[in-house]
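Submission checklist for the structure archive. All mandatory fields must be present; incomplete records are returned to the submitter.

[x] Identifier: Small multidrug resistance family-3 protein
[x] Organism: Stella humosa
[x] Residue count: 110
[x] Sequence attached
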Amino acid sequence: MRSFIVFGGAAAAEIAGCFAFWAWLRLGASPWWLLPGAASLGLFACLLTLVESDHAGRAYAAYGGIYILASVLWLWLAEGSRPDRWDVIGAAICLAGAAIILFGPRPATG
């Protein structure tokens, strides 16, 4: 459960950081947006190191599902565009995949 909380924080930090760059490049926001954006992306990277996983690649792969759900929520809550059924179905499939990657049985290593 802790991993999903960390993933949620990482997703919020990554999306906020990426949105700062989006706002600067696509919405004409001030270049000052890049400072909190870069800090947010740094926080994202640090948070991913807190996930309980023996391998970084596995943690990143599982995080992908959480990131997709968080992106759909961002679409709805921050951008005001309600997700359609395909957004919801896709996010649910990705969450299932993330859970399988993170919690699937693995052979014991000696």
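[x] Structure attached
Curator remark: Helices lie at 2-26, 34-48, 56-77, 85-103. The chain has a mean pLDDT of 91.
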